[in-house]
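Backbones bend. Our protein:
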Amino acid sequence: MKLGQWLGLICLIISFYILWQIRQILLLIFTAIIVAIALNSLARRVEQYGTPRKFALPAVIFAFLLLAILFFIGIVPPFIEQFSLLIELLISGFERLPEFVRQLETDLPFELPSLSMVTDWLAAQNATAFGIFRNFFSFFNDTLQILLQTLLVLILSIMLAVNPAAYRDAGLKLIPSFYRRRADDILCECEIALVNWMGGILISSVFVFALSFIGLSVLGIRLVLAHALLAGLLNFIPNIGPTLSVGSPILVALLSPDPWKAIAVFVLYIIIQNIESYWLTPTVMARQVSLLPALTLAAQIFFATAFGFLGLLLALPLAVVAKIWLQEFLIKDILDQWVESPLRSSVAVTVLPEAVVAAEGLDVQTVAEGNEGTSEEI
C-alpha cells in the first residue's frame, strides 16, 4: 500500500473510533430525527387542507409541545408516585418469599428437599435482589441528565423540522456524487418506514395502555396507572416489553389478600397481547417494513449492549433503517448487479451496476454492448 492509502486507512479507523466514543450523542440525534420526521409528516397532512407550511409547521409544533406539557404535568407525577410504591411493594414481597417457602414446607404432608435449597438460596440472594430492584430503573434517578437530554432532543427536532431539506442536502454531501440521487431515494424509503412505524406503535401502545387500565381496574389490582403505563411504554420494545410488563401486576396480585387474581391478570395480558398481535398490529402496520423475529431479537440484544436502555427502546427503528440500507445499497445496487459473463474460459467479467451507470449519466445499452464486446475479445 502507498503512503496515501495508509493515511486514508488510519483516518478511517480514527473516524470509527470517534463515532464509537460519541455513540450516545449519535443516538440522541437519531431520536431527534425520528421526532422531526413525525412533525414534518403531520405538517404535510395539515398542508393538504390548504394551510401554508409557514402556518402548518408552527401549529403542529405548538400542539406537540402542549401535549408533552400536559403529559408531564398530568400523568408523570402520579406515575412516579405509584411507581415508587410499586418498587417498595416488590421489595417487601421479595423479603417475604423465604418465609412463604418455609411455611409451604411446613404445611406439606411430605418433605421436598428442593424447598430447603430454595429457602437457603433466597436468603443468600436477598441483598443482590434488592440492589436489582432499586437499580432496575436507575435512569430515573439522574433527573437533570434526563431533562437535559430531552431538551436537546426537542431543540434538535424543531431545528431539523424547520428546514429539513438543508440538513438532508448537507448529509448527502458526504456521499460520492454519482450515488447521491440513489441515496436520496433510499432516505425517502427510510422516512416512509419510520413514519409507518411511529404511527403504528403509538396506536398499539395506546391500545395496550387502555385495555390494561380497564382490565386491571375491573380486577381491583393496586397501582393501576403504573401497571398500565408501563405496559404501554414497554410495548415499544417488541418481544421483551410485553413479557416484562406482565411481571409487576402479577406480583402485586400475589401480595394482595386475593392471590388468585394473579391468574386472572396473566389471562388478561395474554388476551391483550393476542388481540394486539393478531388483529391490531397487522391492521395498523400493514405497510411497515417486516423483520424476521430472530433478526429483531438479535438487533435488540446488539443495540441494548452498545447503547443501553435507549438503544433497546430504539432497536426496532434502527433495525428498520439498517435493513433498508442493506437491502437497497448492498443487495440491489451491488450484489444483484454483479453478473458473471458466460465465457468458455474461467475468466469472469464484472458488469457495471445499472444504478451506478444511471447515476453517471451513461447510456445503459451502450455500456451493455461494451461489456459484450469485452467478453468477445476475451
Observations:
- The chain has two domains: 22-174, 175-300.
